[in-house]
């Protein structure tokens, strides 16, 4: 299991940073008339899904009554209808039923409109926990109905504390301050990114040396940035900027991209055609000969192919 999954906080007490949000949340959960529709907003890898799962736990939702949906699980209006129908049924394992919707902004307008019925008149035993990086893409009726809670990137010292905590639990004692600092720098405040980079550093072959690990961390960080942009089909201008800043060996980037797409595919329950397309393009042939040209062409095809 990847480090960031293994060390996902299970309680508010171990959730780092975001003090104001955690305080607000605690207050909301303590109230007898809790809101039944919460929306966690903020950048990727900062704890939106983590918080939603913690809330489900705090609400004492049993596993059978907890549904977590990701983008790929949405089937437009049918998904909405299915939820509305099932929300009426009483929970079987406890007192509440919880739906966690990740990346809810990906729902079609029709599906969002269909859901409004149940969001406006939620049964007493049901809670909806939405997470999104782009709340502005939701229809206003949904956005206005939710109790929004912002999750933010962590400050450097919080990332350092997180790294130290995870190292201690993993019994890693030889991570130098220089490497720790480098991970903090490249994580850009994202706890998930920090733990992915830490995992790379820990997993480096014995005898790699500090310089070698440094290079691994840098390459990994840049490659992840590129992969995210390709997966989201960001405008070419943005992909081109990442490519300009990326002066690592193209063949190593190629392998890193395939690795990232493989774990994206294995991590999702349903199809992810963009991840598959990218993996397919990058798996065709090594970049040894054409080097950077091959890398640029492959990225272009991934965005427009
Ligand atoms: N505030 C935090 N404190 C400690 N660890 C965190 C925190 N936020 C995130 N993490 C770590 O980062 C991982 C990813 O977090 P999570 O899945 O909640 O992010 P997210 O905001 O839902 O991202 P995305 O928008 O990509 O879905 C967690 O598994 C956990 O290890
Ligand atoms: Mg999430």
UniProtKB/TrEMBL annotation:
Q: What processes does the entry annotate via GO biological process terms? A: DNA-templated DNA replication
Tell me which residues make up the AAA+ ATPase domain: 34-176
Show the Pfam families listed in the entry. AAA
Q: Which CDD domains match?
A: AAA (cd00009)
Q: InterPro entries from the xrefs?
A: AAA+_ATPase, ATPase_AAA_core, DNA_Rep/Repair_Clamp_Loader, P-loop_NTPase
Q: Which GO terms describe its molecular function?
A: ATP binding; ATP hydrolysis activity
State what protein this is by name: AAA+ ATPase domain-containing protein
